[in-house]
Amino acid sequence: MFTLIRREIADNLFYVAGAGIVVVFTIWLWSYGVFWAQEPEMTGVVAGFVIPALLLGYFGLGASQMYGDRAHKISTLLCTLAVTRNRIFAARVVAGGLTVLATILPLAVTGLILLESSPLFAPYRGRIVGEMTTTAVLAGFACYCMGLLSGWTASRVWLLAGGTVLLTLALSIVVVKGVGIEAVVVLLLLITASLVVVWYRFVSTPL
Amino acid sequence: MNDKPIVIEDLVKFYDGRCVLDGVSLQVPRGCIYGLLGRNGSGKTTMIRILLGLEPPTRGRTLVLGEDSSGLSANTHGRIGYVAEGHHLIQSYKVRRLVDLCKGLSLQWNDEFFGQLMETFRLPMDRKVKDLSTGMRAQLNLALAMAIDPELVILDDPTLGLDTVARRQFLELAIDVIQRQGRTILFSSHILADVERIADRIGVLVAGKLVVDCSLDELKSRVKKLRVIFPERTPQDLYLTDIINSRAMGREMVLTVANWNPQKQAILATFRPESCTEMPMTLEDIFIECTRSAPAVVPQESEV
User: How far is CA B47 from CA A109, B12, B24, B260, in A?
Assistant: First the structure.
């Protein structure tokens, strides 16, 4: 399993490393805004750019994993080794989940540290720790799952069209509902549904 | 240990309404080198893909090492060495990375044997798979399949794209592998000389039907090509069953018959032919006769 997860990350290093760079840059900008420039409002502006970019990156990661597999017949080779399709799929999702967590959690931790130093964030302290982080992780993972769903197609037109519609849907849900329990429930349902569909399509498609 | 590593029961496969496999049943005993022959599109690759669980059957059942192909466990997959037609290797990887991946995902890995193969084939470890020639990719695929010390080896047209020397090396390697106790090999090929050289059992697929399934010696002894010269014109009907092919020109008739036996010989004698000469047949001749005519199933003995 570890070999499969490592392969997934190494093969999609562009997205994983890209997300990492965005996170490091964001943390630097936030820290600069709060500690040096004394402009805590800057964090909100930065987040406004960074969050959509990250969500798009998660979608790209999922799509790249599945589309790359199909285009290069990777699972066709893997399935002839001591591996089952379920294991390939599980490793893929674990790699995606780890990427989402590894990028959002540092942002959440940075947010917590900044909270302690700026009175501007005081009213949001509880929400940032709990609801916002949970919603962000789930929204990221939902975008990733939709990427998986869109990527498991041989047609690039469907990949782009399907991806755009589904991504817009996911983002709209978060924007309309805002962070909170409703958004969490809707995102969980979306994640479950898309994972079940993509798993079924992956294990039943001739390789 | 399973006595029959491959069991296929009434296998049917349809693609877009077209029947690719039509009720194929066969069993491959342990330690057998089974040569699967057939023209392009006869269903060989489809059959192999169904066996490996890469494709679902429309009807029927296939068992590999005692497990249903539709749900092969990782443990069973790890005991099968597979060389695919077209060699499905990850093109963007360097050879070393691909080898490491396969090694990491194998139940066992024979480093010494793999090293020998890489040395024999002179494969560069630091080149990308896409930069290798077709022959080198075939060799790499073969080396990867053999390195796991497989109990069952499935080779789908493995010598496709290999030059004469590499093909010879492959055949010698296959013989070496079979000599190790308990190994079973199923391989499909277009090169009949290769099959004739190493297979001890033959299957011929014609339009999705398995028309031949017997040992090579049995096949050669049962299928006869006869040149019969009659005193006058050739008869309209010889009243013989299992005629694979016949061609008449004046008094002469060239006849290919399956399941040749003394009864058939006696029936032919009632037409009082002037001469009846048996023409020698290679596997290639038998294959061509079997595949260009209506299917006549060779293995079963007929009444007459």
Answer: 55, 9, 9, 30
